[in-house]
UniProtKB/TrEMBL annotation:
Limits of the PHP domain: 7-79
Protein name: PHP domain-containing protein
Organism superkingdom: Bacteria
Length: 243
């Protein structure tokens, strides 16, 4: 796939409560940006009830845009070190699931400010924090059929750490788990992550790389400022039988 011809993480106002543009406007923007693929990644919780309506709405929209491959995903929080996910029932029909580190996955989902405080007063070490995040991410990838790593490591700066705190060997193992579980790594424009070091490790392991704006309004869809961070031989987006 040509770099920049996909946007693998966008939201619509019909289903994500912090988005500003309806589905029709988002898809029109994807066509205007001459995208080949757009992946909707609506925010969900275990209590979400609108999943059937979402699946139906996208299914009905597909014939109206025959040149655009429209994928249906949801963005869910990784909750803890077991890889538990904040997912509602019925996700088997999705084309992908975006796994996100909105909170820090210790033995329970922990607000980044609380983790920062634990690191500062010595109740939590840097090594233990990084290990917990890696364990949670590895386990989460094994829980769904089409995992997408959404803004990987975006939680680290929120707790006062960086991707450089992830040891190279551990990063390589995470990339190999991603390859084994057929995960996809997004390069997220909104959060400016992951780093070039992380991207290189995943590319070396053969993990597909995709570009994502994390757009919350139609005007942002497919509008890039970070494509130079994707390798020129970036892997294509995964196929989906529903498209």
């Amino acid at each position: 796939m040509t770099r920049g011809r996909e946007d693998f993480h966008v939201h619509t106002s019909g289903f994500s409560d912090d988005a500003h543009s309806p589905l029709a406007d988002v898809l029109a923007a994807a066509v205007a940006a001459e995208l080949d693929v757009v992946c909707l990644a609506e925010h969900v919780r275990a209590s979400t009830t609108w999943l059937p309506d979402y699946l139906q709405a996208v299914q009905e929209a597909r014939p109206q845009h025959p040149g655009l491959r429209i994928l249906r995903s949801v963005e869910t929080k990784i909750l803890d070190t077991t890889g538990a996910l904040d997912l509602p029932p019925g996700t088997e029909a999705l084309d992908a699931v975006h796994l996100a580190d909105h909170q820090f996955p210790l033995d329970h989902p922990t607000h980044p400010d609380d983790v920062r405080e634990q690191l500062r007063d010595g109740r939590l070490s840097v090594d233990d924090a990084v290990t917990a995040l890696l364990d949670a991410t590895c386990a989460a990838m094994g829980r769904v059929a089409q995992p997408v790593l959404a803004h990987l490591f975006s939680v680290l700066p929120k707790v006062g750490l960086s991707e450089q705190d992830v040891p190279g060997a551990a990063l390589g193992e995470l990339a190999h788990v991603a390859a084994r579980t057929h995960a996809v790594l997004e390069v997220n424009q909104k959060w400016a992550c992951p780093s070039a070091r992380t991207i290189a490790a995943f590319a070396t392991a053969g993990v597909p790389l995709v570009a994502s704006t994390d757009a919350h309004e139609a005007a942002e869809v497919g509008r890039w400022s970070m494509l130079d961070r994707l390798p020129h031989n970036g892997s294509p987006a995964p196929d989906s039988s529903g498209c």
